[in-house]
Amino acid sequence: MRLLNIIIANTADPPIYRQIADQIKTAVFRGEIKPGELLPSVRMLANELQISVITTRKAYEELEQEGLIVSLPGKGTFISSKSPELLNEARFNAVEERVCETIAFAKRMGVGREKLKEIINFFMEDENR
């Protein structure tokens, strides 16, 4: 079983369960956690992060609904052995969701399409340096 390196910001906007789910998803998409790998139990992860078991359970439930983890009663919670195509689809769906959130936020802030493209290009180029 792998210990997860999850960092929680108690004052951050995404709820804690979402922070946990997102960090596990990221680790899976990057290949840091492999399919079939055993995750800590809900209780163990809650103790490690010093948070409520209910919060941890909610993160695991979200990941299970997305098909990224599988809970086997009496055996534990594992990273799903989905095909690479399904994992790629899930990764692109997650990116799509964030892009839609960013576009909606930009519209609310009065940032137009061209300026948003400029901002994205700047940060994508900066990341490659």
Keywords:
58% helix; Arc Repressor Mutant, subunit A; 129 residues; three-stranded antiparallel sheet
Structural account:
- By secondary structure, this protein is mostly helical.
- The protein folds into two domains: 16-79, Winged helix-like DNA-binding domain superfamily/Winged helix DNA-binding domain (Arc Repressor Mutant, subunit A); 84-127.
- 58% of the residues lie in helices and 8% in strands.
- The protein has five helices and three strands, in the order H-E-H-H-E-E-H-H.
- The chain has helices at 16-29, 42-49, 53-65, 84-108, 113-127, and strands spanning 38-39, 69-72, 76-79.
- The protein has a three-stranded antiparallel beta sheet.
- Helix 1 (16-29) crosses helix 3 (53-65) and helix 2 (42-49) packs across helix 3.
- It is globular and about 55 Å long.
- It starts with 15 loop residues before the first helix and ends with a helix.
- 14% of the residues are buried.
- The model has no long low-confidence stretch (mean pLDDT 88).
